[in-house]
Amino acid sequence: MAVWTQVVGTATLFAGSPLLWGLTQKVKARLQGRRGSPVWQMYWVIVKNWRKETTVPEHSSWVFRIAPSVSMAALSTGLAMVPAGGAPPSGWPHDLLVVFFLLALERFWVGLAGMDSAGTFGGLGASRVTTLGTGIEPALLAAFGVLWQVSGHTAIAPLAQGLSDVPGGGLPWVMAASSFGLVLLAELGRLPVDNPDTHLELTMIHEATILEASGRLLSLWQWAMTLKLTLLLSLGWAILGPPWGSNPWVNLGLRCGELAATAVVLGWVESRFTKLRYLQLPTYTAVAAGVGVLALFLVAGGFGV
After folding, report:
1. Burial category of 168 from C-beta neighbours within 10 Å (exposed 0-12, middle 13-18, buried 19 and up)
2. For residue 95, which phi and psi values (nearest 5 degrees)?
3. Which of 35, 142, 145, 290 is the most exposed place for a label (fewest CB within 10 A)?
4. pTM higher than 0.70 for the full model?
């Protein structure tokens, strides 16, 4: 039963990731006084680009061609590792550090694609993506440091079970969740860190790296963006969310509801902030890491015991 729940859950989240992206965009548009596109608009965009002719920059290599496929594979594998309906099946890989590695691998290939495009803006975007990644990765580790300290595991299931054992009441949990929330916006390239809707090349970060992509390559990059959103939100709910129930299918339905609710909140957050200057982003990631490290120190020091 657990195996089927995990397989069906992963397939559902994989197929529904463009819908989750569209819900975020719809909420943001409504709050900004615009009608916005339908929530299923991203499906149309992906299919439309898939049918178009694929062109590549003249001086690019095979790296540019396979980068979106590698990114899709890394994110899909990470999504399959996150428990979707409760405790994962016996023997199912679900190590948090492996998920972090897959996220770093995806970011690495995004940077490679930007540089291999041999364009000015591609190189600029690749530089910004990799520079920002040096702050995101330690912040991700710090966000879950409290649970590592308590559970003594890096596997996702023991981390989630160790949440109830965190000493000091809800303060360390709130700090860990706040740290992850800040990292989430940076990793996804959402406001106030980046604006996925901008077409001003000098301010783009992730979008600048795929500016030269077209056709099926662009279609894969767009689906990869939605997969990354689904993966990170699922990871946050799997570890920091409420305890799992006994029925895995009910848990899967609740997970879909949690993701939809978080997408609405994400759209609200983006409509309330403006983009930070690029030189302010190191401070942003340092604050995200600092909040997580402070929560870890509180628990390690016996806070609330």
Report:
1. middle
2. -85, 130
3. 35
4. yes
